[in-house]
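Case study 2.
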Amino acid sequence: MKISKLILILVTASILLVTSCTNEPVFPLEPRIEFVDIQPKDVRHLQDSIVITFRFQDGDGNLGADDGEINLELIDSRVNNGLTPVQASNVYSIPDLTPNAKNPSIQGEISVTIPLTINLPTETEEDIRYQIKMWDRAGNLATPINENTDGRIFTDFIRVYRP
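Prediction:
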């Protein structure tokens, strides 16, 4: 009886060990992101930086790049409404997040700083937000962790004003 219990415990432990060491992705292979925070909520024209934080998940761990390739874009909501696409776009290169990873599934938070924000010349105070676009090395565009209707990810609104 003791031997059969010992065998059962060893078999159960072996199954748990094998299933817990798998390299199978925990998340979808395409990256997913979710807006977390934007600070500060009130920003002075040409004076204050903005920090945008978002959460990510990726099932195959291919986020980021070693070659400085652009893989993150923050787009000001005033694009085509006073700002050109070039003026409204803030682009970044996220470094390779898994250079020596053994488990392909990754998750975490990324914070990005936009050094300065402006008011349009005709405005003294504006409410703006940013769209977050990120893609992996395979070219897959990140989708929302929590699905919404159109698949885009936006920050909350902040106020930009002239002092």
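The CA atoms of residues 4 and 153 lie 55 Å apart.
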